[in-house]
Write a structure and sequence with these properties.
The protein is of the alpha/beta class and about 230 residues long. It has one domain: Vaccinia Virus protein VP39 (Rossmann fold, 3-Layer(aba) Sandwich). Helix content is about 25%, strand content about 35%. The strands form two sheets. A seven-stranded mixed sheet has the order 7-6-5-8-9-11-10. The longest helix is centred in the N-terminal third of the chain and has 12 residues.
């Protein structure tokens, strides 16, 4: 399994120093990949259930046999890789604002990089997701799956906050086909204020709480997946 701990790469970005680490976890008996922003943990391959469910639940609500999908936030690649399991997906564009994260996948420093790179449906876009959806749509999608901020309230950048309000969601909806789906991952419990904002823009909204075990002891974890469908 290699060394017990390695820092595989790091880079200075506009929002802080982002680093990729790999360690041998004695509890899991397996290698774990982790991404940190300065001293804050952003993601870990030990906990990926909700990121995978973001793709499954979002695409389950999408109608049609040929789907063009946009994923906001590449991360460890779990949402993108799970989306590719749906045979209806004909194209998958993954928008990532941090160039080092795309580079880690292209260099296959992350376990899912090889699968994403080998699938001809996958395309990486180095761009600001929130600026992209605020602009006039160049292409409409059947589904947009978003996992960037910790939650609609706990955002990584204060400039993202307006996106989670009705006007921001209307701009996003312009990038969807009629009947298109928007799905969002959140680290917080369901928030009534955000579900109300979704209901102003979308015809149907669902909230799913995804529970997952904690291998390190203590109570299980839980994330929220919001799924909203246009008329």
């Amino acid at each position: 399994m290699g060394k017990r701990f390695q820092e595989l790469d790091w880079a200075d970005t506009d929002i802080g120093v982002i680093s990729l680490r790999r360690r041998l976890d004695p509890v899991l008996g397996a290698e774990v990949h982790e991404v940190k922003l300065d001293d804050e943990f952003l993601m870990s391959s030990a906990f990926t259930a909700a990121e995978e469910e973001l793709a499954r639940l979002g695409l389950a609500a999408a109608a049609g046999q040929e789907l063009d999908v946009l994923v906001g936030g590449l991360g460890l690649g779990c949402t993108a890789r799970t989306a590719l399991d749906d045979e209806r997906v004909r194209s998958l564009a993954v928008v990532e604002g941090l160039a080092p994260v795309i580079d880690w996948h292209r260099r296959e420093l992350l376990p899912l990089g090889r699968e994403l790179n080998a699938d001809p449906r996958t395309r990486y876009l180095h761009a600001d997701f929130f600026a992209l959806v605020a602009a006039e749509p160049q292409q409409r999608r059947h589904a947009i799956l978003l996992d960037i901020d910790h939650s609609p309230v706990n955002v990584l950048d204060t400039g993202h906050a307006d996106f989670y309000r009705p006007e921001g969601l209307r701009r996003l909806a312009a990038h969807l086909h009629p009947g298109g789906v928007f799905a969002l991952w959140s680290d917080d419990p369901p928030a009534e204020e955000f579900t109300s904002a979704l209901a102003e823009v979308f015809a149907r909204t669902e909230t799913h709480v995804v529970d997952f075990p904690n291998p390190y002891g203590g109570p299980p974890g839980a994330n929220t997946i919001y799924v909203a469908t246009l008329a």
